[in-house]
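hey
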């Protein structure tokens, strides 16, 4: 009896495990619960998708409103900036007028420097820097535009320092070359700067360098050789070629022209800085560098007479306004256009002064060199114009 009850209980347990002992209504309840859970899950998923879509629409509208607002603000700022421009900045072509005036002023200054006897170039540069600093610093303080203003980025300070060092080296070489070379030939050597600007742009900015650039480099190199006329290549009479001092100064000004080819780009980069601030910084650096040059190389100082003091004052004022015109022109026009106009006008003015003031006619070699260098400059200008037109068409 006991064994029969136990066996019956075991059979019910096994049937329950196998599902054979479950009532039919239990299956109905399970199916109903499962379908309700599935319906709830589907409804929740649909609501989640709807919420995501609504959020995406709201974000898109917010972004559109933000972009529209930013665009309107940018346009308003541009319009306000154009409206608030000073009168001289709104005159068409005024940048080219300034650079022409600067070229003429620098030519007159070169004549004064060439005729200034008995003073060494670093001493001349020291006097010139101190005189220019004596009226540029009060101007900078009066308009609250000090050198190395507060808040200036370290990168801009580094650019100003590089400009000061390279500018000093080129200025010293320029003074030596003006004293020992003909003005036309000296200006032809310094006019090669646009070509080296293209080279440095290729090396450091990874800009394209095509056939025109290579042709300009070759033309400039050959043209400078014709202008300088080194004795190793040209077998000329002693009176028809430069002496050693002129050759060394020509080499020095050629090298410093290559190194300082980035100064024009630096000025263009710092065009938002006030011109008096940039000038004052340059004069401070020139004065310090000239003093160290004189101290280290033991250059003899010069005690000028009253007439020489007036000449120094005229040279300082002329160089100041020449630099002022160049910086202001770079604030209005692109660097390549200003560089082309500056060197072209300087070449013409220098040759006119050489012929009509010093009565020195350029020989055939100088004419060939001047033609080659001028053609190289205009070749680069043509490439720049073509590149600008392609960008506009795109």
């Amino acid at each position: 009896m006991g064994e029969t009850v136990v066996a019956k209980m075991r059979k019910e347990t096994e049937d329950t495990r196998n599902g054979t002992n479950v009532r039919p209504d239990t299956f109905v309840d399970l199916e109903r619960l499962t379908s309700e859970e599935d319906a709830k899950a589907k409804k929740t998923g649909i609501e989640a998708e709807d919420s995501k879509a609504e959020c995406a629409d709201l974000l898109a509208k917010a972004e559109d409103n933000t972009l529209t607002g930013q665009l309107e603000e940018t346009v308003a700022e541009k319009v306000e900036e154009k409206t608030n421009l000073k009168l001289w900045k709104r005159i068409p072509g005024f940048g080219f007028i300034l650079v022409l005036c600067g070229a003429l002023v620098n030519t007159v200054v070169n004549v004064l420097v060439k005729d200034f006897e008995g003073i060494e170039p670093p001493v001349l540069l020291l006097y010139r820097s101190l005189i220019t600093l004596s009226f540029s610093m009060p101007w900078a303080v009066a308009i609250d535009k000090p050198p190395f203003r507060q808040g200036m980025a370290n990168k801009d300070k580094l650019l100003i320092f590089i400009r000061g060092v390279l500018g000093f080296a080129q200025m010293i070489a320029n003074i030596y070359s003006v004293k020992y070379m003909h003005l036309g030939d000296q200006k032809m050597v310094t006019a090669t700067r646009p070509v080296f600007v293209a080279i440095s742009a290729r090396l450091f900015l990874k800009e394209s360098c095509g056939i025109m650039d290579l042709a300009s480099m070759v033309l400039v190199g050959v043209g400078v050789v014709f202008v300088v006329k080194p004795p190793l290549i040209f077998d000329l009479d002693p009176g028809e070629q430069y002496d050693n001092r002129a050759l060394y100064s020509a080499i020095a000004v050629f090298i410093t022209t290559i190194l300082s080819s980035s100064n024009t780009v630096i000025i263009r980069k710092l065009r938002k800085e006030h011109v008096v601030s940039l000038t004052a910084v340059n004069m401070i650096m020139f004065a310090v560098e000239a003093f160290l040059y004189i101290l280290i190389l033991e250059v003899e100082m010069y005690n000028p007479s009253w007439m020489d003091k007036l000449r120094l004052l005229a040279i300082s004022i002329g160089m100041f306004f020449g630099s002022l015109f160049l910086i202001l022109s770079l604030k209005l026009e692109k660097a390549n256009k200003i560089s082309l106009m500056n060197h072209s006008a300087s070449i013409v003015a220098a040759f006119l002064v050489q012929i009509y003031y010093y009565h020195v006619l350029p020989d055939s070699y100088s004419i060939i060199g001047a033609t080659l260098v001028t053609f190289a400059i205009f070749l680069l200008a043509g490439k720049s114009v073509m590149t600008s037109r392609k960008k506009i068409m795109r």
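The first helix runs from residue 2 to 18. The chain is about 80% helix and 0% strand.
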